[in-house]
Amino acid sequence: MTLDDLDGVDRRMLNRLQDGLPLVARPYAAVADELGIDEGDLLERLERLCGGGVLSRFGPMFHAERLGGGLTLAALAVPEADFGRVSEAVNALPEVAHNYRREHELNMWFVLATETPERINEVIEEVEAATGLPVFNMPKEEEFHVRLHLPV
Amino acid sequence: MSAATPLPLDAVCSLDEPAAHRRLRAVLEQGLPLTPRPWKSLAEQAGMAEEEVMACVRRWQADGMIKRLGLVVRHRRLGIEANAMVVWDVPDDRVNEVGRRLAQEAAVTLCYRRPRRLPDWPYNLFCMIHGARRERVLAELAAIAERLALGELEHRVLFSTHAYRQCGGRYVQEGVA
């Protein structure tokens, strides 16, 4: 499924739902009403987009730190020849949430999400032991709030 | 309750009971079911009342434990492939002001201040810009830099070339850390 498979109503629906669902007993009916479609149609469209892999998650987004967990962004400078081995070692850790290759000397960027804040440093040591590379740990110090919205 | 009826203000949230708290978090973690009364479905699984589940969610939203109720679009699946992390070296006395202004730009999807790691990494402000193509993202960045008069700040654009893992962590939204 790609952007071309979405019709105008799908796009309006995705754009609307990225702004959040109302906390009411029948949230889909409320949003369908705003969009001028019926609840059953909205639910069918959502089923189709979930099935097509366009939507990864629906519902409450928890704030990891406020739940008592740890979260950080970390980077490695991985020699090109070792990239495969290092990415396997990093991705094998259950605390690694996302891992992106980026164009820079620091070429591997990953997010660690842990049950407790203390666990972050332990996982960083595990990454260093498993890869033999120093980890650049860059936890957020301040978050500047944005609207999380990708127009489609 | 009808679709538009707001939650009664006196609905009780019994999260002081740890077992109920854990059960509710476990069901919320699965996300909202695509059924007409999703909170009711979750409430049945957690052995709670619909109103109570909604009251707990509202309290967690007020406390900031739940950042929002909504959906996550897998933008790569939709062909929005260019994902640029733009990093800036901003003097310490200006970084919060620049961060706040960048975050207000529509194209900026995340904006954080992070520690420098000298000498290798002098950048202390990170923002994400997504777009269908690199040229679009770079044009957007140039427009933002001009609007906010950021031209003099040292910055780098780190495009991602591959996502090895997306949305692995249950509570972690894409790109959020």
Topology diagram in text:
The complex is a heterodimer of chains A (about 150) and B (about 180).
Chain A: H1 8-17, H2 27-35, H3 39-51, E1 55-62, E2 70-76, H4 83-91, E3 96-102, E4 108-114, H5 118-131, E5 136-137, E6 142-143
Antiparallel strand pairs in A: 2-4, 2-5, 3-4
Helix pairs in contact in A: 2-3
Chain B: H1 18-29, H2 38-46, H3 50-63, E1 66-73, E2 82-89, H4 95-103, E3 108-113, E4 125-131, H5 134-147, E5 154-165
Helix pairs in contact in B: 1-2, 2-3
Instruction: Work out the helix count of chain A.
Output: 5
Q: How much strand content do the residues of chain A show?
A: 15-25%
CATH fold descriptor of the largest domain in chain A: Alpha-Beta Plaits
Largest interface: A-B, 80 and 85 residues
Average of the residue pLDDT scores of chain B: 81
Low-confidence stretches of chain A: none
What is the tally of beta strands of chain B? Answer: 5
Tally the helices of chain B: what do you get? 5
State the order of secondary-structure elements of chain A, H for helix, E for strand: HHHEEHEEHEE
CATH architecture of the largest domain in chain B: 2-Layer Sandwich
State the strand order across the main sheet of chain A: 3-4-2-5
Give the CATH class of the largest domain in chain B: Alpha Beta
So, CATH architecture of the largest domain in chain A?
A: 2-Layer Sandwich
End-to-end CA span of chain A: 13 Å
